[in-house]
Automatic annotation (TrEMBL), chain A:
PANTHER family recorded: DIPEPTIDE TRANSPORT SYSTEM PERMEASE PROTEIN DPPB-RELATED
A single GO cellular-component term on record: plasma membrane
Name of this protein: ABC transporter permease
Subcellular localization, as worded in the UniProt entry: Cell membrane
Transmembrane segments: 12-31, 103-126, 138-162, 182-201, 240-265, 285-311
InterPro entries from the UniProt entry: BPD_transp_1_N, MetI-like, MetI-like_sf
Main location: membrane
Pfam families to which the protein is assigned, alphabetical: BPD_transp_1, BPD_transp_1_N
Topology in the lipid bilayer: Multi-pass membrane protein
From TrEMBL, chain B:
Gene Ontology MF terms in the entry: ATP binding
PROSITE patterns, alphabetized: ABC_TRANSPORTER_1, ABC_TRANSPORTER_2
Superkingdom to which the source organism belongs: Archaea
A biological process from GO: transmembrane transport
InterPro entries noted in UniProt: AAA+_ATPase, ABC_transp_ATP-bind, ABC_transporter-like_ATP-bd, ABC_transporter-like_CS, Oligopep_ABC_C, P-loop_NTPase
Location of region: Disordered: 333-376
Record's protein name: ABC transporter ATP-binding protein
Keywords: ATP-binding, Nucleotide-binding, Transport
Alphabetical list of Pfam families matching this protein: ABC_tran, oligo_HPY
UniProt organism field: Halorubrum rubrum
Signal sequence residues: none
Similarity comment text for this entry: Belongs to the ABC transporter superfamily.
Automatic annotation (TrEMBL), chain C:
Name of the protein described by the UniProt record: ABC transporter ATP-binding protein
PROSITE patterns, A to Z: ABC_TRANSPORTER_1 (PS00211), ABC_TRANSPORTER_2 (PS50893)
GO cellular component: plasma membrane
Organism: Halorubrum rubrum
Chief location: membrane
Region (Disordered): 333-356
């Protein structure tokens, strides 16, 4: 099977998954007892039955569940997530404003994780059992074990308060593409990427050690190829296969981590918005963010699948 | 060991029409679209196993022999067919009843290490079947374990050791002791010695033969090594692509007449004798996929003794070459796969002088754009060279058909060429799935050449019919 | 005169958790230019370790402790890594037991051959590709142009082995070290690969050191052979002498343990016991616990390789050597075995190939 066909097949397979995501998201919010209208009603005992019905109509919580679902889905498909209850503003506007902030943070976290993990993993594997290997493994273990809210606070404490290198809060209206933004991204980005870097490095090291013992490595050496060709051409590509598999799962971790990290650093992304929306019971906002993150995770998995097939021809031909 | 004429005796195991197919369909989409890939691992196998005898099953990897072994004991569920033991069909038994049957039917695995639980001691491993079937307990059980270990040539004090503390041969002894624990009638041995060194292999083979004499065991002995099979078996079955192609008492299978596949297997054995001159029969190609096995005789894609069609006056060798061309044309994506590599014709001899492998020499006489750009003559010669076809063929009709196909190939009409060849050259072996023909007492060969009714000269059967359609 | 490859007093040890394993102990042999030299032995004999030592491919925890590996008169073991790399793949090629595993699964088979050619011969990519395709054709792979860009998993086992043979031959080496090249293959494929190796060795004028556990493989292809047991050479001989007049009881035992078609034996002759513990090998002759002719002296004195006729210590140039006390001190019972040569199968007048 050609790579193109493989990608096409995988892309098609994403559709039922996204459908499932929409059903689960909608179901969770609408089948659990206490819809937003009942909550409003509970807080304001003066609301009349007629007013309640109107509210339900307006917020789209009347009628049978399946019809509400279809309505909601058709709106979502055209990018309409409904309105905020308090302000009446379109939720989509809010999401599109916040999404780039979170993507920037997540990408920075990723780049940081990969930039640290891959070279360290290679170094540790090639120098297995030596001091550098042991040191990097100890660091990786600490990286995996540190909770990110704690790491975030620690970084703020050290770099912002003691050393004064970074401002504690990001400037509110600085556009993302402004070079200055990078400075503000650094601490939250490192915080969010550390755990991923640590797990990636461990997997990179393990899979590289395993691949280095493979017969094709001996065979490559027996052909007189220089060690750097053996490691960077032959072993690296094989080792990356397991790294990519892990990377897909880590994406979900980074997304989840963004909720905490954005709150700690007051980063104006979807994560901190989610916390706010939950506190204010903005159902439509919470649903919108849930859907967007779920789609992001599904897409990350799809990308990982494609990357996987690019790296390893055996996958394409299955 | 058993008599060959013991037909009257009810066999301990009778296998009828056994088929085990499994699904290798991968992925949700394939399943959704109903694209299934049925692997016909075992595809219609019959045999009897008599008390106290050894039936050897030999074949190359992928022929389905391990699946056969497992299907016989119900370790994998057969798709069709029956396995009778004491008159009862094992395939119809419930899993509990089948488990009970395992007291009589045991299995010895190829890889002793992976089939022994590493966390159990030797005593635990051998004693486990005693516990499971409630055969012995307490002091009696320990005594029986010691006895079994001694029977297979281990020491009673080995009972406390773990599998990794044994050598490969000792582990296989342990596997045999475990099988013996329930005092079975039949043991299916799946490549029991192929992982072992020659000297150890001989020890295990001798042990199996001693145990057979002592306990009256019947073995189904699966192996890829004909030397081992010949040594241990009373009767032999040769397996190819899920089917038995030859079956009979050992002496007769290893002597002419042979099934062409058996003959090729025998010819390929490396003999430990420097002056040995083999027959030099070499099979070309690889075993075809069991997903979509070849039509007619499944061996026809590789058979050195393919029956030529009586339409033409061609030698068997030329016929083989024609069939290879035809088979390759069916699968080809490009014409290059049907021509000799363009550079190999330069004929500057051996590459020792660096000549033939020098890139400067690699300038393609057919031009860089491919063989189809070459002259009709050159192209024709390249195709004939690749398949060893004489120019011209001895039969004028055949020559005309080949020439037409080569012309089509040259115009890059591969599909058309394949159709032309398909229409012109069809061996009776491709048309008819051979049944087993008797060539001697209890000796059957599933090859058209041994069909008494079939007249090779005329290409017809005794009743004048041609072998059309697949009879089975 | 120096031979193409001269291995002298090679000792390789592995430092494992269970103790120090001497995988190859004081091994000496030579391979002449263009000859096929067989190394036969069972698992644990040290034949693979010896083969890999030739190319300096011993990894931790293994270490080449002593000895010389002289290739064209130069000691490979004292070369620096980069000089050694220019010999590997260029002048000495290697063929592995598991050919599929020896090919990198994520690169096309042809690319891997071309890679070696570019590296050692300085060809540009296009020329290297042409040469790789011609090699694939030469080792009998049909449609080499298309196969060039296919991946190892698209090749059958036999085709993988053909491809690695093409790879080993790619820079026209003087020596190929083939480590059990046919063990993982079916018998019909094995026969074709052995014939191919034989044919190519002849055509490319390359010497082959063929390592195998199968005496049948050696018999059909080699000019001379060495039998190894527990890390040591126990016998070296021209091929016909080895089979028709084995001088070491282990060689004789190994031969009689092979079942042969048509010999009509009910029982196989066996070598009792198992290969010795590599951490703590037996004293004296390492084969004595399994040798039917062992005497008291065998448990004490370690026999060295000697010329079986004269009893003098064997040198690298000797064609015939065996390590048994019979040829130095003499055993009181002697070596009581003889060899019978069986008639060809079809003529069917069999006897045991080796009997007492």
């Amino acid at each position: 099977m050609s790579l193109r066909r493989f990608v096409l097949r995988r892309a098609l397979a994403v559709i039922p998954v996204l459908f499932g995501v929409s059903v689960v998201t909608f179901g969770l919010f609408h089948l659990t007892p206490g819809d937003p209208v009942s909550q409003v009603v509970a807080l304001n005992p003066d609301v009349s039955a007629a007013e309640e019905a109107r509210l339900r109509e307006r917020w789209g919580v009347s009628g049978p569940v399946w019809r509400r679902y279809l309505e909601w889905l058709s709106n979502v498909l055209v990018g309409d997530f409904g309105r905020e209850i308090r302000t009446g503003r379109a939720v989509s506007g809010l999401v599109w404003r916040r999404l780039p902030e979170t993507i920037a943070l997540g990408l920075f976290g990723w780049v940081f994780a990969v930039a640290i993990a891959i070279p360290t993993g290679i170094y540790a594997a090639v120098n297995k059992g030596k001091l550098g290997d042991v040191a990097s493994r100890v660091l990786a273990l600490s990286g995996v074990s540190l909770p990110n809210f704690w790491l975030g606070l620690l970084l703020i404490l050290v770099f912002s308060l003691y050393l004064g290198l970074f401002p504690v809060l990001p400037p509110s209206r600085l556009p993302l593409y402004h070079p200055e933004t990078l400075r503000y991204l650094l601490l939250p980005g490192v915080t969010i990427g550390t755990a991923a870097a640590a797990s990636l490095m461990r997997v990179m090291r393990t899979s590289m050690v395993e691949e280095l013992n493979a017969e094709y490595v001996t065979a490559a050496r027996a052909r007189g190829l220089p060690e750097r060709t053996v490691v960077f051409k032959h072993v690296l590509r094989n080792s990356l296969v397991s790294v990519v598999t892990l990377a897909a799962t880590l994406t979900a971790g980074i997304v989840a981590g963004s909720v905490v990290v954005e709150s700690v650093f007051n980063w104006p992304g979807l994560g901190s918005e989610l916390v706010r929306a939950i506190n204010r019971r903005e159902v439509n906002v919470v649903m919108a963010i849930t859907v967007v993150t779920a789609v992001a995770v599904v897409l990350a998995n799809f990308l990982a699948d494609v990357l996987y097939a690019v790296l390893d021809p055996r996958i394409r031909y299955d | 060991m058993s008599d060959d004429d013991g037909d009257a005796v009810e066999p301990v195991l009778r296998v009828e029409g056994l088929e085990t197919h499994y699904d290798s369909t991968e992925g949700f989409l394939d399943r959704l679209l109903g694209r299934s890939r049925r692997v016909r691992a075992v595809d219609g196998v019959d045999f009897d196993l008599r008390a106290g005898e050894t039936l050897g099953v030999v074949g190359e990897s992928g022929c389905g022999k391990t699946t056969l072994a497992r299907s016989v004991l119900g370790l994998v569920e057969p798709t069709a067919g029956s396995v009778y033991h004491r008159g009862e069909d094992l395939t119809a038994l419930s899993s509990a009843e089948l488990r009970d049957r395992r007291k009589d039917l045991q299995y010895v695995f190829q890889d002793p290490l992976s089939s022994l639980n590493p966390r159990l001691t030797a005593g635990g491993i051998v004693g486990e079947p005693l516990d499971v079937h409630g055969l012995a307990a307490g002091a009696e059980r320990d005594e029986r374990v010691r006895e079994l270990l001694e029977t297979v040539g281990l020491k009673p004090n080995h009972a406390a050791r773990y599998p990794h503390e044994f050598s490969g041969g000792q582990r296989q002894r342990l596997g045999i002791a475990r099988a013996l624990a329930v005092d079975p009638e039949v043991i299916v041995c799946d490549e029991p010695v192929s992982a072992l060194d020659a000297s150890v292999q001989a020890q295990i083979l001798n042990l199996l033969s001693d145990l057979q004499a002592e306990f009256g065991l019947a073995y189904v002995f699966i192996a890829h090594d004909l030397r081992v099979i010949e040594h241990v078996s009373d009767r032999v079955a040769v397996m190819y692509l899920g089917e038995f192609v030859e079956r009979g008492p050992t002496e007769t299978v290893f002597e002419p007449p042979y099934h062409p596949y058996t003959e090729a297997l025998l010819s390929a054995i490396p003999e430990p004798d420097p002056l040995w001159e083999g027959d030099g029969i070499r099979l070309t190609g690889t075993v075809p996929s069991p997903v979509d096995p070849p039509s007619g005789c499944r061996f026809h894609t590789r058979c050195p003794r393919l029956v030529p069609s009586a339409e033409y006056d061609l030698s068997g060798e030329t016929w083989r070459s024609l069939t290879d061309l035809k088979l390759r044309a069916r699968e080809a994506d490009g014409v290059t796969s049907l021509t000799a590599a363009r550079t190999s014709r330069e004929g500057d001899g051996s590459p020792v002088d660096g000549g033939a492998l020098d890139p400067a020499d690699a300038i393609d006489p057919a031009g860089p754009t491919g063989p189809t750009e070459a002259s009709r003559e050159t192209f024709d010669a390249l195709v004939r060279e690749e398949f060893g076809l004489p120019d011209p063929l001895s039969d004028p009709d055949a020559e005309a058909a080949v020439a037409e196909a080569i012309d089509a190939l040259r115009d890059d009409r591969i599909g058309e060429a394949a159709e032309l060849l398909d229409a012109a050259f069809v061996s009776p072996c491709e048309r008819r799935h051979p049944t087993e023909y008797d060539v001697g007492a209890d000796h059957g060969i599933a090859c058209l050449r041994y069909d008494g009714e079939f007249d090779e000269e005329a290409g017809t059967f005794a009743d004048g019919s041609e072998p059309a359609g697949s009879a089975e | 005169m120096t031979a193409l490859l001269e291995v002298e007093d090679l000792t390789v040890r592995f430092h494992t958790d269970e103790g120090v394993v001497t995988a190859v102990d004081d091994l000496s042999y030579r391979v002449e230019a263009a000859e096929t030299f067989g190394v036969v032995g069972e698992s644990g004999a040290g034949k693979s370790v010896a083969a890999r030592s030739v190319l300096g491919l011993i990894d931790r925890p293994g270490r080449i402790e002593r000895g010389e590996v002289r290739f064209k008169g130069e000691d490979l073991l004292s070369m620096d890594e980069s000089a050694l790399r220019s010999v590997r793949g260029d002048e000495i090629g290697m063929v592995f037991q598991d050919a599929r595993a020896a090919l990198n699964p994520v690169y096309a088979v042809g690319e891997q051959i071309a890679e070696t050619i570019e590296h050692h011969m300085g060809y540009d990519p296009a020329a290297a590709k042409t040469r790789a395709i011609r090699l694939l054709d030469r080792v009998g792979i049909a449609d080499p142009e298309a196969r060039y860009s296919e991946y190892p998993h698209e090749f059958s086992g036999g085709m993988c082995q053909r491809a690695t043979i093409a790879m080993a031959l790619s820079c026209e080496p003087d020596l190929i070290v083939a480590d059990e090249p046919t063990t993982a293959l079916d018998v019909t494929v094995e026969a074709r690969i052995l014939e191919l190796l034989d044919e190519l060795a002849d055509e490319f004028d390359v010497a082959v050191q063929l390592i195998t556990h199968d005496l049948g493989v050696i018999a059909g292809t080699c000019d001379r052979a060495m039998v190894m047991y527990a890390g040591e050479a126990v016998e070296t001989a021209p091929i016909e002498d080895l089979y028709y007049d084995p001088k070491h009881p282990y060689t004789a035992g190994l031969m009689s343990a092979i079942p042969r078609i048509g010999d009509g034996r009910d029982r196989l002759r066996t070598i009792p016991g198992t290969t010795p513990d590599p951490v703590d090998p037996p004293s004296g002759c390492r084969f004595h616990p399994r040798c039917p002719f062992a005497e008291e002296a065998c448990t004490r004195t370690h026999p060295s390789l000697v010329d079986p006729e004269t009893g003098e210590a064997a040198t690298l140039d000797d064609d015939r050597a065996a390590a048994c006390l019979e040829y130095t001190e003499g055993l009181s019972g002697g070596l009581d075995y003889s060899v019978e040569v069986e008639e060809p199968r079809d003529e069917r007048a069999g006897g045991d190939p080796a009997d007492e």
